[in-house]
Amino acid sequence: MSSPFGKAILIVNARAGRGGVSKNLPELLTSLDERDIDYEVRMTTARGHAIELARDAIHAGERFLVAVGGDGTIHEVVNGMIADDKAVNPEAVLGVVSAGTGCDFIKTFGLPPSPSHAAAHLDGGESFPIDIGKITMQCDGKPEIRYFANIAEVGIGAATVATAERLPRWLGPTVYFFAFWLTLRKHASAEVVVDLVDRKYEGKLNNLVVANGQFFGGGMKIAPKAAPTDGLFDIQIEHAKKREAIAIMPKVYKGQHIPHPDIFEAKRVRLAISSDRSLPIEADGEVLGQTPAEFEVLKEAINLKV
Predict the structure, then answer these.
(1) Does residue 163 register a pLDDT over 60?
(2) Are residues 69 and 209 in the same domain?
(3) What is the pLDDT of residue 116?
(4) How confident is the model at residue 19 (pLDDT cuts 50, 70, 90)?
(5) Which residue from 107, 158, 171, 290 could staple onto 215, CB 3.0 to 4.6 Å apart?
(6) Into how many domains does the chain fold?
(7) What is the CATH number for 169?
(8) Alpha carbons 141 and 91: distance in angstroms, whole number
(9) Which residues neighbour 114 within 8 Å (Cβ) at sequence distance 6 or greater?
């Protein structure tokens, strides 16, 4: 029996979550079988492979793509579902089963972290459109475009993600917490210009947050007012001194770090950043490129299964 969106194409990152996806997959498949949901499993074999799998599935006429893994898996599936700033198939639907090191994307929508419970959300015809972010940046000296579902960062946040990639996976969601402290020791703020269309921020920057969703970094509520359905980014420009940045950090977990005199907040459809030196950029927990960069909201770009 198929869902209203057709057969569910499960795009599975078996390496996510220290192999936790492979351990949880039987539980998910059993739950899908119990609900008579027709599905097909397609395993990724390398970084970036989920983009190809998602794109190939849509070109083959499939409409129901399910990212099984963490935020990075969702990131790749979304990039396979969008091309030239629009959905490859406007009728396609994204489903999500959390099974990676961290899946912060689902927290904004209240989707369950358990694979068996997530299967219940793959049943039925409920879905709604969500916004997607677009980044135009530099990658190895060439311009590159990527799309993101959750949150992007420029500066120490992106450097923290790069550090986290080198830490042992057994740290689980706390890997970002430890990576932050390791990164902060060598961090120095940059001089930037952030163009917010109707005004500019010029000055020091530790971190730029461009939020579509609310959570990142293993449960930090970085953007408590963000809504992936309002057509706007929630933007934070953090320029605190190192001692104050340390004081801010614990408050982020509860979304209590804002308002703050050292965090400039804005809501915009687009923005651009240039800097006195190349700064790293990450989105959805994936290190992608460097500044200069531009960000833009693609309103209601894809449909999310809930």
Answers:
(1) yes
(2) no
(3) 86
(4) low
(5) 107
(6) 2
(7) 2.60.200.40
(8) 36
(9) none
Residue 188: the pLDDT is: 93
Residue 32 lies in a domain: yes
Give which of 8, 223, 215 is closest to 97, Cα–Cα: 8
Tell me the CATH number at 22. Answer: 3.40.50.10330
59 falls in which pLDDT band (50, 70, 90)?
A: very high
Structural domain boundaries enclosing 32: 8-126
Last residue of a domain, one of 80, 104, 126: 126
pTM: 0.94
The answer to the question of residue 306 being in a domain is: no
Q: Are residues 109 and 173 in the same domain?
A: no
CA gap 99, 97 in Å, rounded: 6
User: 148 and 238 share a domain?
Assistant: yes
Residue 95: pLDDT band with limits 50, 70, 90: very high
